[in-house]
Write a structure and sequence with these properties.
Shape: globular
Number of helices: 3
Strand content: 35-45%
Order of helices and strands: EEEHHEEEH
Structural class: alpha+beta
Radius of gyration: 13 Å
Length: about 90
């Protein structure tokens, strides 16, 4: 199944490693370094034209990509769980 991140961007749900709150996660210097290195290597995809609230780490073809999103992590998790309820 797929998860809609906004702005015509969808990702495969089975490729998601984690959904993170941008404000809470970037308190740690390790997360800031991770995001900085990902940006330098071109692995960040910004799907937000507004203030970003979350980032989604995905594994695609044995590489990771990070999607910066304006939706809150709780909204994304609700969307992902609704997909499961439609399938069941």
């Amino acid at each position: 199944m797929y998860l809609h991140l906004g702005n015509n961007t969808i990702i495969r749900k089975d490729e998601i490693i984690g959904i993170f709150d941008l404000d809470a996660s970037t308190v740690s210097y390790k997360t800031r370094d991770f995001l900085s290195n990902a940006e330098k290597s071109g692995r960040i995809i910004n799907v937000s034209f507004e203030l970003p609230k979350s980032f989604v780490v995905c594994r695609e073809n044995n590489e990771y990509k990070i999607y910066i999103c304006q939706l809150s992590p709780s909204t994304l998790i609700k969307r992902a769980s609704q997909i499961n309820s439609f399938v069941d």
